[in-house]
Amino acid sequence: MRRILSAALAGLLITGLAACGGDGDKGTAAPPAGAGVDGVDDGSELTLWTRAPLELQAKALVEAYNASHKNQVELTIVPNDDYVAKVGAAAGSGDLPDLFAADIVYVPNWTKSGLFFDLTESIGQLSYADKINQGHVQAGTYEGKKYVLPFVLDLSVVFWNKGLYKEAGLDPEKGPTTLDEFKQQALAVQKLGKKDVYGTYFGGNCGGCNVFTWFPMVWASGEEVMDPAGTKSLLNGPAAQKVYSTWRELQGAGAIAPGSKDETGATWVAAFQEGKIGVMPYPATLLPTASKTVDVGVTAIPGVTGGGSTFVGGDGIGISKDSKKTQQSWNFMSWLMSEAAQVEVLAKNNSSVARTDLVDNQYSAKDPRVVTINKAAASPQSKTPVAVNFQQAFNAPGSPWVTLLRNQVYGDAGSLEKDNEAVTGVLGQ
Amino acid sequence: MASPVSTLEQQRSSPAVPMRGSKRRRRPRLTGWAYAAPTALFVLIFFVVPVVLVARMSVSDWGLFTGDRGWNAPENYQDVMDDRLLWPAVWFTIKYTVVTTVILLGLALALALLVQESSRWTGILRSSFLVPSALGLASASLLFYALYSPQSSPLGFLGIDSFLGTPSSALWSTVALIVWRFAGFYMLLLLVGLQSISGDVYEAARLDGASRLQTFRHITLPLLKPSLALCAILCVTGSLLAFDQFYILTKGGPDNSTITIVQLVYNMAFYGQNNLGRAAALSILILAALLVVNLLQFRGLRGRED
């Protein structure tokens, strides 16, 4: 019996260790570039993972691809909070799907970890390679090799409630063009004194929300949030300080809805959608949803003295290191960059296109707000920040960035230098 | 005439048929193994193997995406001890455990005493107290998240500015959720204990002229100790391993004030550090601490029973 138990234990251990440390079939797949610019469409079954916030766009893209190709993509939507763990577990056991999308701020870490197939040659074959959103392309470039293309762009812009602006005596067609205007317009709505209506809102306990909405305020002011290597925080500059003081003044004036202080990001956009907020930075992908209940105005996120910027977020997509159908997977990625996908699927569904040459299209022309969003994405002041430790420094609960922003709005504003050094400490690890 | 006992002893000690005797002895032993085997296999697969794997991970440079890159002991353990959030998380977890255990057991006992006697409303009351236990903890946490959200909360009349916005309010708001979710469950355990106390004991106390308080103090509490100890062990272990409620309600905030030790493990593994080796090292330390706590609890319980 002892012998049987020992054998069973050893077997399980070996199986378990192998499962956790396996390399999969890395390196056995054909280079996608070998199949030309379009890849292979031979009726293969491909698997694709994406996270829940992009479900709408991902489903539309996959349905359109499946309807027009022999290859068939099977889409798996994973809850946002589980995505990193799921990808990590699959990467360890060599079970990643053929294609998977990743929040663009995590892409540098994932490319460094070798999760994606090298697509440098394939991307180079695309005639419009230089028109593809460069923020995403740069985030997906590691040591000179390109691994990722834009899947869905999620941009941050300023939304305002035209109805509340009219009531507050503001011009409902004119949003803020500077940080001070943003503050004044929020205060004007607050002065209405309407029950449950507030000037503005932000994710006071959410690192990702404020990366998405405050970084563009710094960029629009002509400053940077990190050094080019993504290892040093510059969040103590003059523009950043102006951003913090603006929000602190709004907080002091009672113009930020009370839920902000607890906001972990789960209900970040709800209050505006319910018509209770005057003006706030907001995800552009939610324009169709917010427009159902509010008359929405849209503009780029302003800087201290003007300018306009947006955080070019969303997800990048690549072929996984475990895929054996790389040439078929490239067929999907190549199609994804085509006019058929960008205009006839994404633009048609009010999403931003990922190619600058397709910004003005038949669908965006119908809604000037979409043109505003697309132009903001193409602005040189709009960026995708690149840092290997981005998640740990900014997005993770308890990150030093969350400590910094909370101190600046609610706590000891004098701790900026110390808090900024803490962010640098994590970025440089 | 020899007594039956002495005859049996003679048979047992008789060396007349040694082979058959040893086979007989072996058979019950094999039968015992056969009975224990399914459970032993279950424990082996679902406890021993994972623990060995985690121990192996804890001494390896094992990234979430990079896999095992070789032995690095004791680096992971050093990194865990140097983590700026470790001691705040440990102290918060202990504070939360003490607060939760005291309130939960006190309330559960009060509820159990309230519904101990059968009356017209007993069935409804027992069911009402128990219903929250049927809800998953994650679902209950989401429910309370909406309840605490200033945008959707029907609790505005309480005049509380922020349910989760300060360290203290976040702690108490989470304790309220846990008490609501678990009080009925512990009430049920204590009710079983209460009903196992014989009515004769209470009858005797009444005849001796004992007051209600005296009866509770000198009869109910001592006889209920095994049930209370079981509840305490479950509650302490559950609270030391708290995760879902804080992950959903506060994400460890505000200002890292509600990061529990298990949430720190999760952050190390999946959310931020992506370092399975470090997370495994902290898991091993938690396992060791839990073993000590549970051994002390069992020892205390056994001492009282003796």
From TrEMBL, chain A:
Pfam families: SBP_bac_1 (PF01547). It comes from the Bacteria. InterPro entries: Bact_solute-bd_prot1, SBP. Residues 1-21 form the signal peptide. The keyword Glycoprotein does not apply. Keywords: Signal, Sugar transport, Transport. The keyword Repeat does not apply. Gene3D superfamilies: Periplasmic binding protein-like II (3.40.190.10). This is Multiple sugar transport system substrate-binding protein. It comes from Actinoplanes lobatus.
From TrEMBL, chain B:
Belongs to the binding-protein-dependent transport system permease family. The chain crosses the membrane at residues 33-55, 89-115, 127-148, 170-192, 227-248, 276-296. One of its GO terms (biological process) is transmembrane transport. The keyword Transmembrane applies. This is Multiple sugar transport system permease protein. It is found in: Cell membrane. InterPro entries: ABC_transporter_permease, MetI-like, MetI-like_sf. It is a multi-pass membrane protein. Keywords: Cell membrane, Membrane, Sugar transport, Transmembrane, Transmembrane helix, Transport. PANTHER family: ABC TRANSPORTER PERMEASE PROTEIN, INNER MEMBRANE ABC TRANSPORTER PERMEASE PROTEIN YCJO. It comes from the Bacteria. Residues 1-14 have a biased composition (Polar residues). GO terms for cellular component: plasma membrane. The lineage of its organism: Bacteria, Bacillati, Actinomycetota, Actinomycetes, Micromonosporales. It holds the Pfam family BPD_transp_1. Residues 90-297 form the ABC transmembrane type-1 domain.
